[in-house]
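Below: protein 1.
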Amino acid sequence: MEEVPIPDFRTMGNERLARPSTDLLDTIYLCQQRQEWYRDFARTEGEKPLPFVGSVSLASDVVETAAHMRGALGFDLEEAPSRRQAGRRLSAASSDWRTSLACWPW
């Protein structure tokens, strides 16, 4: 059985799922390939590391971490009247930082 190469928090009915689907693994591997390509591209282009990457740990307070990320992204919850608008603004803010919400680095 192939292991999931990232932290695996998948559950169904509070039970861990034993086997990852082929589709899940394909998606993870594709995202990892894209991340590796972008990491190499960014280094080649002289991009500086993002200041918030690696700035928190699993032991960090969730509320404080969310506030830290909002600050780093320049994202203000008060300026988003709906969840949809908040999602759009967050996506735009993250694009400014050259990040991908779909393939977050693990």
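Below: protein 2.
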Amino acid sequence: MQSEVKKVQIYMWGIGGGAAKIIARYLPLDRIAGFVTSHRTDSVSSEFMGKHIYTPEEMANRKYDAIVVSSVYVEKIYADCCKANLDMNRIIFIRRALATPPPQWRR
């Protein structure tokens, strides 16, 4: 009997250079279900790299396995996650994978 492999629903928080670096280095675009940003407005496209962009409030009503945070604005994103009542056990902050570590990590 062949078991079915569940497709994991991974979203990426961030629609800038950090997201592009993570996609290039660690997480192929075809594994990402969509993107999340707190700054989606009429002037910001509703798509990034061909995937839909959601707000934190929209994510609160979606099913997902994980949201990978690719932005350096972790404090603001953490607050936005709490405000939208997102499951913090499914939020993965990967700041260290980005180019510059925060000052407190530098020696």
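Helices lie at 17-25, 56-59, 74-83.
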